[in-house]
């Protein structure tokens, strides 16, 4: 159960990072509210998962999921250009996250 909460919390990290960017320095209210809600739930889920999982592993998985999804969202929206190096490095990041879970 802790792993499921951690994965969802990592996904919400990507949501709040994207909402923070879209809030335009907190001038747009909808992305600002989405940022506040998703950040709160994401952090609470991470904190809960850390009760049951090693802190370093939980944090690395949370950040890895959030960072990967945030970059992929940038690709989808056209804010970032998907180069071969970026895609390969994201694959390495995802493989590392899977590896951390496998050895935990």
TrEMBL record:
Principal cellular location given in the protein's record: membrane
Record-level GO cellular component terms: plasma membrane
Pfam families: Multi_Drug_Res
Gene Ontology molecular functions: transmembrane transporter activity
Database matches in Gene3D superfamilies: 1.10.3730.20
Cell compartment(s), UniProt: Cell membrane
Bilayer disposition of the protein: Multi-pass membrane protein
Segments passing through the bilayer: 33-52, 59-78, 84-103
Alphabetical UniProt keywords: Cell membrane, Membrane, Transmembrane, Transmembrane helix, Transport
SUPFAM superfamilies: Multidrug resistance efflux transporter EmrE
Family: Belongs to the drug/metabolite transporter (DMT) superfamily. Small multidrug resistance (SMR) (TC 2.A.7.1) family.
PANTHER family per record: GUANIDINIUM EXPORTER, SMR FAMILY PROTON-DEPENDENT DRUG EFFLUX TRANSPORTER SUGE
Protein name: Quaternary ammonium compound-resistance protein SugE
UniProt source species: Georgenia soli
